[in-house]
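Hi everyone,

Forwarding the result from last night's run.
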Amino acid sequence: MLYSHIVTGRNCTSPDEFLCPSGRCIRRANVCDSQCDCAPAPTTSRGGSSGACADEMECKEYYTDVHGVRLCDSSNTLTCIVPGQNRDKDRCIHPQYLCDKTNDCQNGHYLSDEFGCRKRRCL
């Protein structure tokens, strides 16, 4: 699935890669991991930057589609789904707590905020 922040008209050689605005390809596992792997996205024809990191933009949509964590009503949180329970009991968490090696959803289910996360390596 393509997200609006990665549609550029150019492609990386592997489907497991993400194309930065600079043309550099990074591992897709590094997208939305709370670490800037691309240079900040350009915003002007003179090369100015918004200061936003291209691989860390629109991450709510990424986590919703990739990790199965649904959006909350608030613009800055995600919902931990607890199957078989009233939706009022669903817990909202901030995206920064996804894949942080702590089960913030605490639902004991595969739709945890830690499900589908890849192990991070130190460089």
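The two ends are 28 Å apart (CA to CA).

Cheers,
N.
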